[in-house]
Structures are given as structure tokens and as C-alpha cells.
Amino acid sequence: MTSEDYSAKPYPKGYWPTETGPADAEAWSATVEAVRRDMELMRSWITDEERDITAPPERHAAHSAMRGILLGIAHNRYHIGQMGGLRALLGVPVRDG
């Protein structure tokens, strides 16, 4: 939603990763940090009283920021659930914090 040069990818092929997973622990940490940054950005949109999240962004007049926020929440919820399930299958305790 924030990229100036965004263009839709062919569905579904364009949305599958080309690699099987992070190359190493550093790549995994970078991925986790990117997710945290994106979540903080969405949080800032929601809490900014000056921002109308129901209005369409300039570059994507067909959709609202709220739509992007809700899609991001649903997407992350799905994958967090997958990770919890994998941890359970591997016998790794799922803990808070």
C-alpha cells in the first residue's frame, strides 16, 4: 500500500516465494523485523486521529487504508496460527511473550 512502484502480480504464481525459506538465522530475523515494522506502521495509521483510514490512498483510489489494514491483520493472523500449529507438531511449547 505504501510502495510507489507497486504493481499487481499474476495470481497465484506471483505470490509464491521462489525460495523454500530463509537462508539463515539472520534472514529469519530480518523477516521478523520487517513484519514488526509493517505492524507498527498499520498501528500508527489506526491511532493517527488526523488520518481518515476510510478514504482511499492517492495511489490506490479503488481501496481504502482500512481495507489494507484488515487484509494485513487477516494475513498475519493466518500465518501466526500456522506457526503455532507447527510448534505444537514439533513439540515446542508455545508461550506468551
Folded structure, characterized:
This protein is mostly helical. Helices cover 51% and strands 0% of the residues. The two termini are 29 Å apart.
Helix and strand arrangement:
Layout: H1 25-47, H2 65-90
Helix pairs in contact: 1-2
Tally of separate helices: 2
Alpha-carbon Rg, integer: 16 Å
N-to-C terminal Cα separation, in Å? 29 Å
Shape: globular
Question: How helix-rich are the residues, as a percent range?
Answer: 40-55%
Count all strands and give the number: 0
> Could you list the spans in which at least 5 consecutive residues all have pLDDT below 50?
none
Largest sheet: none
The string of secondary-structure elements, in order, is HH
What fraction strand? under 5%
* Global mean pLDDT: 85
- Structural class by SSE content: mainly alpha
